[in-house]
Amino acid sequence: MRAEILCVGTELLLGDIVNTNAAYIAKELAAIGVNVYHQAVVGDNAQRLREQLERSFSQCDLVVLTGGLGPTYDDLTKETVAELFGREMEFNQEAYDGILRRFLHSDRQMTENNRKQAYLPVGAVPLQNQNGTAPGLILEDEREHRTAVLLPGPPREMEPMFSNQVVPYLKEKTHSTLVSHSIHIFGLGESYVESCLHDFMEESRNPTLAPYAKEGEVLLRVTASAGSREEADRMMEPVIERVKELFGDNVYGVDIGSLQAALVAELQKKGLKAATAESCTGGLVSKRITEVAGASQVFDCGICSYANQIKERVLGVSHETLEALGAVSRETAAQMAAGVRKLAQADIGVSTTGIAGPDGGTDEKPVGLVYVGVDSENYSTVLECRLSRGYRDERELIRYLASSHALRLALTAARKA
Amino acid sequence: MRAEILCVGTELLLGDIVNTNAAYIAKELAAIGVNVYHQAVVGDNAQRLREQLERSFSQCDLVVLTGGLGPTYDDLTKETVAELFGREMEFNQEAYDGILRRFLHSDRQMTENNRKQAYLPVGAVPLQNQNGTAPGLILEDEREHRTAVLLPGPPREMEPMFSNQVVPYLKEKTHSTLVSHSIHIFGLGESYVESCLHDFMEESRNPTLAPYAKEGEVLLRVTASAGSREEADRMMEPVIERVKELFGDNVYGVDIGSLQAALVAELQKKGLKAATAESCTGGLVSKRITEVAGASQVFDCGICSYANQIKERVLGVSHETLEALGAVSRETAAQMAAGVRKLAQADIGVSTTGIAGPDGGTDEKPVGLVYVGVDSENYSTVLECRLSRGYRDERELIRYLASSHALRLALTAARKA
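YS: structure for the whole thing
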């Protein structure tokens, strides 16, 4: 089945809102093995919608539409699709009952416009809306082998309707099982990862392997199509093993989500606690750890010591070290990590100190120089990182990369514990 | 000029990332008076890209493309556009110098792949990439009246390239002097702001007023078109004054960028220091303050006290308060703010404690309940916030909104000091 996603709405076209619907639907379709071929956005304009629909159905057999199902005069999606499929509109009792139920639960008055929402093309399967008044619908044209799925625009209404009603409907039609795994790699560039895997990526059609770069990390997605989940997993296993062999410790997990999620999971597994002492990252390391629900089991304390006196007074970094070597030094990073570990009575202390820029750099200690430290019973070290790429406005990037190195060091310490 | 936005990338098509580029470009084009007619997304596939480009140019004279400019074999945008325009690819020294500069500043090795990035279609105007290796380009075909703008996919690279290089280029083509100001509003909903300004927005064509909602804030963009910058500013002044009158203290600044930038600027002006004590926000408040370059002049210390014992031991919150009222309470927030102010010897202490979810909520203290406190000589208070909207996965939203309330309270305290 080849699908297109067609989002209707002038507010999307003009950029007043970001189109999260297309990404949501595409991901859900990929998960059930439906190939998305194309995405498009058109404004609230019946003629252009009609033209786009004709193009879409010339290439695809499934078009998923969002938006334009509201009660007002510029909501035209249903009528346009009905016309293209050669269907009349008719009053649908099931859809009307659903709308009535929405109003029963609210203090708002139902209007004549809302009654209009209960008119659907002849033969349509209505989709109930748990979070709004506009019903969705599925319309099939078996002779021409084309299916239109119409969904409301607001994500809160669209998402549950799609996953609870449309996905089961499509699954029954397709009978295929597509399974994906994500391999998370830190510390290698995308071009390097790709050059190592180039031949495999070119040759292999099932499973497939695709790299995605995001700030300092590479995510490799392996996808297999098979008769069952078990068979798909069997096909992917040697590929995942091969990637792990190739990239060794740089692979920090499979299907783990993020460095912080991997760290929290490892700490939970081992019953350990970590603590953070941050200078240049300013709280970003603790922010990322506490992003993970359940972090409170493994994380009690983070200190953002942005000034030397706080490094001394709260973390116990020695005055002499700060005087002789400066705040941005290997020794300060080591003492910060040890200091916060002691203060928090944690198993692992992790620290960052460096120059995020744009000012404050010198020849000896340029912008982007960051020391990342870790202190624990079996593993204590300081890493010197040079994180500037010479970009403009790279302060946030340097801070983010430094926080990733800190999370990675803490993860290594947790694994060695 | 009629424009289409065409985003290239399998990761967009499959929903692995949300397409923020289309919204960004659409909004920037609208601001300089260019109408966006259509948006589309295609995968990394030369043939489908070619087909879409032909359709796009049959309806529009400007196509803005993002993605597919990377160094790898599946990055095909440049070649496909060149073919459509009937141009050869040639080595471009200016583009190559830009790429070289990127590598000079980093410890990464340049590869043969990167050299490929310096090949542009004959006659293209190269666009420098301040934040990555892939140069962008503008290609005009004067005979056929069509222009293609090619931009890299990562927003960090695309956005400054578009606003600093493409916008001036298009402005010159369209001959307008457009000046904009941004009015920053916190604490009012977008629909409320819009309903207050509805008549003005409907009637006024120059200057125009457009609201943009983003996580708890509303940004009002005022734009005037005039013969000179001074004249445009004169036209906008009464509008800005009117908005300030209407929304009073909820307007926290004009052209100030963000709550954290407004706070750091106010603290610098007054020679004050702030300190943070965070529980549910986990370091996000200090992370946002230290995002602002120069924050080290006004911020020494942030404590993330995620466990009760750290609230007691480091911040001096009383054991009795924690026992009797719990960590999520007005009293705990007040003591955290006072405690960190004392510990850091700061002028202003600010605190957060609450339930970010998804677990940990009760009937009495539901997910989304957050107390935000501030302590300073002239202004000390605690705000009770209910930040849940009942959405799925709203942990990060609750944390972000709580951090915004904290920054806002600190800003109020700094203004009263």
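YS: worth flagging: Chain A has a mean pLDDT of 92.
IM: good catch. Also Chain A is about 45% helix and 25% strand.
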